[in-house]
Amino acid sequence: MQNLKGKFPEELAEEFRQMGLPAYRGKQAFMRIYRHRATSIDDFSEFPKELREALAPAFRRLSMLERSDAPGGTEKFIFDYAPDNEKSSRFRSFESVWIVSKERRTACISSQSGCTLNCAFCATGTLPFSGNLEAWMIVDQVYELLHARPDETLTNIVFMGMGEPFHNYDNALKAAHLLNHPHGLALGARHITLSTAGVVPMIHRFIDEKQPFNLAISLNHPDPEQRGQVMDIDLKYPLEELIDAARRLNRELNRPVMFEYVMIPEKNMDAANLKRLIQITRRVNCKINLIPLNTNLQGWRRPTEEEAAEFQIALRNAGILAFNRGSPGREVDGACGMLAFQRLNAGKS
Length: 349
Hints:
The chain is α/β, with parallel strands linked by helices. It folds into 2 domains: 9-58, DNA polymerase, domain 1 (Orthogonal Bundle), CATH 1.10.150.530; 63-348, Aldolase class I (TIM Barrel, Alpha-Beta Barrel), CATH 3.20.20.70.
């Protein structure tokens, strides 16, 4: 067996059968990893010593390169791993964030090392794309954060770190189901959110499969003529196709969509774009997460607190549920759009 992690009990049971061992070892291994949060093979107390020794190479953990505290308790982590399927010894790195808010403790996790997209406001898109993360690597981020913050209770998981989850759909969805599994962490499906910049075919697949998780869509601009300047994916999947997919999710899954909207003064916060955004909300059952711009990649500026509040109030006056997500972790380059190893690279310079 090459890897104990990233597999459902049934998959593990089959692998143990192929090893000539009882199938029940699969459920035991799964629960030891995902319910009891084993940190080494030695924690598998129900396994005989000889079996633990044989399985030791198959118990993997991510390597933590760095952790950085921000005011208020939010913390950013940098991990890496060496891919099995590459002859190269090159490691891939990615970041996760433990976000602390008044009532929540949220694990923000990555699905790729780098990103396949290049959103104009996002520092991750400036990095070379190093590859998709396997399901176990996505899940292991959550467990490493839990090991690092043992006195806190996880309330939510968001696939909003590095990468486009729907360009790594199979691994991302398998990871979500592993985190939701009743014999593991058992976090409710409504506490797990997958985010996409707008990969329309995968949104339709998500709907076809009747996935139980929340879906967030990075909207960021309501004008079909201008969204492509902010979101390069719009050049492939135009805004109207994205809106149609969101409406289908409303109809067939009977569930609202969360639109994420990075507020960029002089770009998407003027009266005309506010009106367009309100018009979209009249067509889609949605909530809006407002996010102040955290980078200056294009020379764009961050909105003032007054500008952000005024924009939010205008949406709420129009009857729209709009929340200002703020910028937790900004001081350690851990806020939305900032994940690009800045602190790690700074430490090497």
